[in-house]
Amino acid sequence: MLEARDIRYSHHRRLPPVLRGAYLSVRRGEVVGLAGPSGAGKTTLGRILAGYLEPDAGTILVDGEPLPRRGTQPVQLVFQHPEFAVDPRWRLREALTETGRPDPSLLSDLGITPALLDRFPHEVSGGELQRVAVARALQTDAPFLIADEMSAMLDAITQAQLWHAVLDRVASGRLGVVAISHDEQLLSVVADRLVRLEEGRLTEDVNAITAQSVLGADRVIEDSTLR
Amino acid sequence: MTLLTVEDLSISFVQYEAGLRRRKLDVVTGLDLEAARGEVVAVVGASGSGKSLLAHAVLGLLPSNAIERGKILYDGAELDDRRRRELRGRDIALVPQSVAFLDPVTRVGDQVERAARLIGEPEPARAAEKALRRRHLPEGVEKLYPHQLSGGMARRILAAIATIGRPSLIIADEPTPGLHEAVVAETLTDLRRVADDGAGVVLITHDLEGALTVADRVAVFYAGTTVEQTRAEAFQGDGEALAHPYSRALWRALPAHGFQALPGGQPAPDDLPSGCLFADRCPLVADQCRDNRPLPRRVGGATVRCIRA
Amino acid sequence: MTVPTLVSPGHPDVTLHLPDRRRRALWTVSILLIVLAAVVVAGTLLADVAAKPDLLNRRQAPSLSHPFGTDWLGRDLLARTLVGLRLSLVVGTLAAAVSAVIALLLSIVAASLGRWADTAVGWLVDLFLAVPHLVLLILVAFAFGGGLTGVVVAVAVTHWPSLARLLRAEGRRVMEADYVHLSRNLGKSRWWIGRKHLLRHLLPQFTVGLVLLFPHAILHEAALSFLGFGLPPDSPAVGIILADAMRELSSGAWWLALLPGLALLAVVKAVDVLGDQVRALTDPRSVHE
Description:
The complex is a heterotrimer of chains A (227), B (309) and C (289). Chain A is an alpha/beta fold and 227 residues long. Chain A has helices spanning 42-49, 92-97, 104-109, 114-117, 126-139, 156-171, 184-190; strands spanning 2-9, 19-26, 31-35, 57-62, 65-66, 75-78, 144-148, 176-180, 193-198, 201-204. Chain B is an alpha/beta fold and 309 residues long. Helix content of chain B is 26%, strand content 26%. Chain B has eight helices and 13 strands. In chain B, a hairpin with a 5-residue loop joins strand 1 (4-16) and strand 2 (22-35). In chain B, helix 3 (108-118) packs across helix 4 and helix 5 (151-162) packs parallel to helix 6. The interface between A and B is large, with 42 and 33 residues.
């Protein structure tokens, strides 16, 4: 289980804190949606969960242990803008193999062709870059993934492809996901439950309509207006 | 009569690979588009499908290593290089993708006024003020700096700058990239208003749902080709009214309409298949599909490039 | 019912008609390298001719047998100039290479060994840049006893700061990028990150910086020799030739200063253009034109 306990953070000591005691827990096999007004601090929380930022106070625990100082982090992060997540001087193959030998079935699920891997980041589209970023994160076999607006810049089909691959892993019990998104329609089909970040704290939205894994039986979305 | 007609536009680039080898990228191969006054036409497609190049082409802003073919007609007459330069900013305007286009150290009022001066408005200050009021921006916004504006307001400033000269054609290039719902709604509603005031608006975006809230017609774009041009109303239900398999796949991929994925990806521009570009992923593919590229033809109320529609 | 279809687009191969900037750049670089190599070879072969005094033919104006004329000891000036240019090129190349390597090493240290290393390197760069360039050159040459060693060390040790500043900035940018963060989060060692991220970004700028340092190095060697802090007065360094020429100005022997000076200018310009073409070929921003 991934836990965030009493996380407090402000970007600068003279600025008001964006996180004032946030609590969150995510289990393997579930997707927790994280919604909230833009600029509220969702990305900051995502980065803290993945170990990119140190909180001013509070702890992050994975299976009861704090995040390791070295080695592969158990919480991986996929950014909104994949252009910044891949070294522009690397071919995509290098970015992908950074985390190990690629699994052919994962690559085909994500629509990654060998020809694509020969290219440099500036030669491919944002959607193609994001496919490689997601593959790279999933390959680490890290138990937790923070998807920070992972598909906000993508077209609907690529979005569905990427999320299906992620949700496959979730359904098999190997992965727990925090899905940060402003798209509540998306969260209603990928998230098992929804939390909202408002004024620095997280509250569970018990009235939100969420869905079980996409690979289950029918998903009936009755009410797409969430509030 | 349509304001803008783009027929079979193709744009290619020559690029260096390793060493002295060069390769040709056919980024756009069969772009068709029609836009009329008072209408919002959304050009919807995946990132990297070449949509933004349409804006650059119409405005005459393609880089020097671009090779362009096909026809672009504006107001009935051919839009050659010279005419593109003349009309640019005055009769045909661009709303750019990023608010970084605004100068962060100048008040927005001054920036709008400067734009008015640049296109030759005889009374720049007045033209700027009218442009801001037409966008329903509050009094006093002129004195603010870009960082003081909300996301939606900043985008409306971009629209104000574009509409100073009362252009007949506005091209908005990805005006709402990954933005929050409220900002998307604000920006798109504003563009709708621009069309209602009489201009033709071409809305280039990957956000189909957002586009459908304001568009009259939609051109679906795949791998550099317009696969379908149809009325916005066709996007409803299960997408049965859509003629091209890709359009239907796009609709059904939306979270609210099935969240269905399609395997594979777009073909690379330097290695396009000889037949239909969608053949590898199409559920309706037949042998003839791989022989030649389909020409556009009318099916129902839409124009489609598909022999199986 | 047959549906009209479009034949696959077979646009004729237009690539052959477009100007091939890379090919032209490569030609320019090759030609210039050959010219510079020729200067070096000529300089080697003419060493004896350059040293031979001919007191009967002193201070002769340029002629067919002596294209640059002769100097105050009757030595053929063209031969002397070529030998001097060879010296300048060799010293310049050596010194520039050492300088560039110092800059690269320091910037790698600054980027990968933490805050303190970065601050220390920055401080060192500022220190060197604060001292007037020529003064520093002279001081170092003097401290190393003048002569060839003194010149090489002086030029090498004073040309690295501006390149180091550039590389340090680039290194900082790379180390703060998300993709490096990601590599760290994947457990990669500092060594690995330095090799696969940092070096990849620094090497192209290093190469360009190195080539652009040559003209400076060459000119500064000439300056040092001119001022008398470089090579011994009988060696045909271009600076010394020019210093001698200064003394002879009153005799009206204009060729003693003008022709070697122009030759030096031409060589420096050639190296400059060479550097520019190399930059055009390797600069990631213009690499596709």
